[in-house]
Specification:
Length: 107
């Protein structure tokens, strides 16, 4: 089963002391995560929390050539950690989900 909350990574990161976040970013110990723009950036408060958690807004249906996916692809080429949940959504039923073949085009 996948996680139950759609802002867990961002929320945990955003409540850490700024010194801890800053040190983690400088040492490359944080990750970028493509996340649904509709869910994780739906209003300014949630968007700020998501951004602090290094979530990158992406939209369903726009493919891998949209800004958010190009951004994480560029970060990957720079050697940064990218975390992609292959289901593309919260899988609460625990079903096996076939990963979209277009995901490979990012890399």
């Amino acid at each position: 089963m996948n996680h139950e909350c759609n802002i867990d990574d961002a929320l945990v990161t955003s409540i850490l002391p700024w010194e801890t976040i800053s040190r983690a970013i400088k040492t490359g110990r944080t990750r970028y995560i493509p996340a649904s723009e509709i869910i994780c950036f739906s209003n300014p408060i949630i968007g700020t929390i998501s951004g602090l958690g290094r979530l990158v807004p992406v939209r369903w249906g726009l493919g891998v050539h949209q800004f958010g996916m190009r951004f994480v692809g560029d970060r990957l080429l720079e050697g940064h950690w990218i975390n992609i949940f292959p289901e593309g959504y919260i899988n609460q039923k625990g079903n096996v989900v076939i990963v979209s073949s277009c995901l490979c085009a990012v890399f």
